[in-house]
Amino acid sequence: MDQKRMMDVFHFYQWRILCFTLLLYTVDGQIRYTIPEELKEGSVVGNIAKDLGFGLSDISDRRLRIASDTGKQYFHIDLGRGELTVHERIDRETLCSQTVPCLLPIEVIAENPLQLYRIEIEIQDVNDNSPTFQSHERILNIPENVNPGAKFPLDKAEDPDVASNSLRSYSLSNNDNFKLNVKNQDGKKIPELVLDKYLDREKQAVHKLILTAVDGGNPVKTGTSEIVITVLDINDNSPQFEKSFYEGSIDENTTPGTEVIRVKAIDLDEGLNGEVEYFYGEQSTDATRELFDINLETGVISVKGQLDHEKSNLHTFDILAKDKGSPRMEGHCSVKIKITDVNDNAPEIVITSLTSPIPENSPVGTVVALISAKDADSGENGKVKVEVASNSPFKLNHSLSNHYMLVTNAHIDREVHSQYDIQLNAVDLGSPPLSTKKTISISISDTNDNPPVFTQKSYVVYVKENCPPGSMLSSVSAQDPDVEKNAQISYSILGSTSQEFPVSSYVYINSDNGSIFSMHSFDYEKIKVFQFLVQAKDQGTPSLSSNATVHVFILDQNDNVPAVIYPSLAMGSVSHQRMPRSAKMGHLVTKVTAVDADSGHNAWISYRLAEATDSSLFAVNLYTGEVRTKRSVSEQDDASQRLLIEIKDNGEPVQSTTVTVDILIEDGLHEPISDFRQKATERDKKNSKLTFYLILALASVSMLSLLTFFILLIKCARGTRGSPSCCLRRNSDGYKNPNRNLQIQLNTDGPIKYVEVLGGDMMSQSQSFGSYLSPMSEFSDLTLVKPSSTLDFKDTLRGLDASLPDSAWTFECQQVSTIFSKHRTVHIFTQYVVCGLLTVVATFK
Ligand SMILES: *[C@@H]1O[C@H](CO)[C@@H](O)[C@H](O)[C@H]1NC(C)=O
Ligand SMILES: *[C@@H]1O[C@H](CO)[C@@H](O)[C@H](O)[C@H]1NC(C)=O
């Protein structure tokens, strides 16, 4: 500053040297001084005394002074030298403003004599003022879309200096967009700003320019003003997304409200023009709009609805970003959201076809059902495994993907399980896995695979003899585990185990309930036991059956009165016996022999002396029936004695009979011992004779049989073509051994000895020819004890019976022809011969 000041002073003195004494005389002779403004106080303007014509001595005498009516005393007269000096700073701009020339009149007064002088002082301009702007800053707001060429007036600068020192030009600082234009208006220079190039707020929002005003002084002085141009925003930018494509993925079970992705668009504009809002693009479907929500302001895309991978696994849509300018500008982006699968669907079991019921005899591998499994999930979550409980007789065969066949894996028995509830379990491979259970019911239909089974393998029935026909003997029953027709049982009698016994004429079975009824009353004495097969048969197709044996045992009832064999009462009701009067005590008078057709207790016979002429003389042995003397017979005893002997069995009720024995005591009779012996030898002879004849008879029979056999054989061999069956059947009868049916049995137990000629099998028991030998009887007794017979031969025997000593004897021969077939003629024949021979033997006796 000091330096500048110094320069100013230097300039000033230069100026003073040049112009200081510029003395002008005006036309009217007035004195005019010209001085620059702003002279220093004390600077000499001119020697006024000299110029007015005063001498040096006059100056003080005349008392020169400056008359001033105004307060300001710019000048002073130095009375010593007579010089006019600057008393006060003179500012031309203050005194004259823009008036040129700037004249300052002063009056100088001189006394002695008083004289008034007019002096003009011209104040010359000095460039002491810089151009100035009214304000240092000018603010302009220009929209960015204003076209180039637009003009904006600026403030003009003022410079109080005049002439060349006044304002000369303007200049503008360097910039890209604006030019300066200066126009002249009433001689004044007015600057204006001209837009040269388009503005871009986004490039430069504020421009700061310096406008400089320059004057014409030397040196020049300048003034500046700042122009601040704010570029006003125009919505000339659309929002731009950061990415044109956004991709996101989210699990399908995401809860609504969860953020998926965030899109962001930027708008370079400012204010509303730069505020962005987000919207769905117009093509977005309603489904998408329901599932996702876009935050208008933040661009956050969030889940709104219930996502379902199975419905749609990918959502693609556009998003618009719009600013709030006018008009609204918009930008686009596309969004792809993948819905990832979550194992949220349990597998489903579908029974495509089901066969129920299935028959129980279905072979292993029979297809029962077709099953398929579904799972709406994808990937592993959608893979399904179906299993069946391992303990059931079914298994699953995997056929195509997710298709299964349920087949039988084992033999199925309805009687064990009539119904199966098969539990299927489907599990997917997701994590965690989901599963579904399903039960299918399969019923098993019955097949007739079980025969009826009797509750017992064999039944034993005890029947009292003489039971009335039609009484129920027993009941058999069988069970069949099958159902319905397959379990409907009907009972029947198959027949006897031995073909000879016509069991169907003896018993009858109720086919519905298996009750067995008798058709006859049974006689123990004729048949003691028989057996037959019963069959239980179901109604299935084919039907099944099983057999059981029923053994019927006839229980003996005491229905037979003891029969007196000896003494025979055939001749009358009384038996006559003789004994010597010389008989001693213990003399065997006679022996009563009785038989009881019953058996067991019912046949235990006891003898009792019921009445006697002289009960002191005779006694009867309880068991043997021997009648003996209790004492020696005396002369006084009556010659004729009568005994009534009661014979009882041991049955319940007791059956009894009596026999009356008349005893004639004879005087002339010898001791009976020798007689007895003789009789015994006689009987031995008779017996040996009998045995001889018997052997002879058997030999003859054998011969005859053989002969007949050969004759028949030849006959059959000849007539083979005519009737081949005759030989074959004979063979099938097992007739090879004709002696099979002829057995001779000698029993010696009990008081009675007997010989039985037995048939070969059990049935033949009843056909036995029995020979009872009474050891103590005087006769050899041959008894043929037979069951009832219808044989004609019986009549013959009856005739024979009449000729025998005692009428109690029965000769019976089984009618065999009804049982034996015609092919057993030989057998019959043989029997006839035997019967005949026996008759001969009896006659011979
Ligand atoms: C079987 O049926 C007959 C005739 O209806 C009846 O008499 C009998 O008592 C029945 N038997 C059983 C064991 O019910
Ligand atoms: C039952 O007996 C009959 C006749 O003897 C026979 O044919 C059948 O095979 C027997 N059935 C069974 C199951 O034993």
TrEMBL record:
GO MF terms held by the record: calcium ion binding
Gene3D superfamilies: Cadherins
Chief subcellular location: membrane
Family annotation (Pfam families): Cadherin, Cadherin_2, Cadherin_C_2
Record-annotated Cadherin domain positions: 27-133, 134-241, 242-349, 350-454, 455-564, 579-674
UniProt keyword annotations, A-Z: Calcium, Cell adhesion, Cell membrane, Glycoprotein, Membrane, Repeat, Signal, Transmembrane, Transmembrane helix
GO cellular component, as recorded: plasma membrane
SUPFAM superfamilies from the UniProt entry: Cadherin-like
GO annotation (BP), single: cell adhesion
Compartments where found: Cell membrane
Topology class, membrane: Single-pass type I membrane protein
Transmembrane segments: 690-714
Main function: Potential calcium-dependent cell-adhesion protein. May be involved in the establishment and maintenance of specific neuronal connections in the brain.
Protein name stated in the entry: Cadherin domain-containing protein
Organism: Coilia grayii
